[in-house]
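S., here's the first fold you wanted:
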Amino acid sequence: MDEITLVKRAMAGDEAAFLQVLKIYENTMYRTAYAYLKNEHDAIEAVQEATYRSLKKIHTLKEPSYVGTWLVRILLNICTDMREKSSRHVLKETIEQRGEIPDDSRFEITEAIAKLPKEQQELIFLKYFQDYKNQDIATLKNIPEGTVKSRLHTALKKLKFYFSEKGEM
């Protein structure tokens, strides 16, 4: 059975079909959550929450061919919420560990990306870590493709400036 038929059955309330659709996107969802949250436990929790929310809202999906994009959008919203909650705790830990000098040389690109605004972080992540095309990102973020291109360009300029300022380019 093809994916569109499965999605249509899932939208009609067939839970077995919904599980098959999730199985198709399971790896993509986990990799996306892990890359975004950088923690296996949190990634699994985010995928579980996305599964629950998507099961409850599958009937609201408008176009069956965009089920993958729809699932990733739900997942990214959950990851963003989780990141905001955990950032409050990380800030406190950073203040407590102020005297320590961490060895972050291997993670400089991650550090540089983390300094970008969240919207630009998402675009960089989707484009370069998940290999989404600009058109797919535009659909996912519900913005024009030209806006995706200009925002990516701005984000890359900021990264280039960050590294040139550190004397690494």
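And the second, which I think is the more interesting of the pair:
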Amino acid sequence: MAYEIPVTQARAELAELINRVVYGGERVVVTRHGKPLVALVSAADLERLEKGGAAVEEQVISSVSSLDSAVSAPGGRRRFGIAAEHRQQGEPGS
């Protein structure tokens, strides 16, 4: 769970917050009017998050790429306002 702190208080306590993140292993969420603005995380946490995000992104791309062309329901393109469709090279109309 992350520690939440208002932006006005975070300004006054920035050095302490950095120490809590780096040495205490905490994550700090800075808020404005109770809504999250930014998060302070250690460089190690950021690296893990970025690596994890890239792996998830690659997995999604792989999953989507492996799907066969789906046939939409009759009239579906008109009903949902789809104006274009993807065609691979060599298919009719490409």
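Why I say that: The chain has a mean pLDDT of 76. The first helix runs from residue 7 to 12.

Talk tomorrow,
H.
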